From TrEMBL:
<dbReference type="InterPro" id="IPR037401">
    <property type="entry name" value="SnoaL-like"/>
</dbReference>
<protein>
    <submittedName>
        <fullName>Nuclear transport factor 2 family protein</fullName>
    </submittedName>
</protein>
<dbReference type="InterPro" id="IPR032710">
    <property type="entry name" value="NTF2-like_dom_sf"/>
</dbReference>
<dbReference type="Pfam" id="PF12680">
    <property type="entry name" value="SnoaL_2"/>
</dbReference>
<feature type="domain" description="SnoaL-like">
    <location>
        <begin position="9"/>
        <end position="111"/>
    </location>
</feature>
Length: 158
């Protein structure tokens, strides 16, 4: 990878911090794929942008900090924090995320985020709920299903 790819990732996170969906979309290849613990596989720029609309719609007080961007031989990694209020509970979450990016034609073709789902659920749900059920596969499936439903509604409306 080169400095241009790392610069594109900085541009992407600057746009995310500003909630500038058009600038974010301009960083993605039309055939991009995205995955994380809540949205395991989202394909195509239009659907991924619908996912970001859902995410940003629930985080009106988003505070993003890009900690590091590292160019590797065939990818770029980014470490970042997203602080926001989880709307379902009103609890403040500081989400620590590690991302991996691959590129094609100077645009992001693969975007994968990793974070500690159990840690997130403890912050989002609080104790004891986050500790007792936040880590279970059934709870994770429920969160994924709700997120997918929100994505489908948003994608259909666009």
């Amino acid at each position: 990878m080169n400095d241009a790819d790392a610069a594109l990732i900085r541009t992407f996170y600057d746009a995310l911090a500003r909630r500038d969906l058009a600038a974010m979309e301009g960083c993605y290849h039309p055939e991009v794929t995205f995955g994380d613990p809540i949205f395991p596989e989202v394909e195509g720029r239009d659907r991924i942008m619908a996912m970001w609309r859902v995410q940003l719609g629930h985080g009106a007080d988003l505070d993003l900090t890009l900690r590091a961007v590292t160019a590797l031989p065939h990818a770029v990694t980014a470490s970042w924090n997203a602080g926001y209020t989880f709307t379902a509970t009103g609890r403040r979450v500081v989400h620590q995320v590690d991302s991996l990016f691959r590129f094609e034609g100077g645009l992001i073709i693969r975007h994968h985020d990793e974070f500690d789902f159990k840690r997130w659920s403890k912050m989002a749900l609080g104790r004891p709920v986050g500790l007792v059920v936040g880590w279970t596969p059934a709870f994770r499936t429920r969160i994924r299903d709700r997120a997918r439903q929100g994505l489908e509604r948003t994608a259909a409306a666009v």
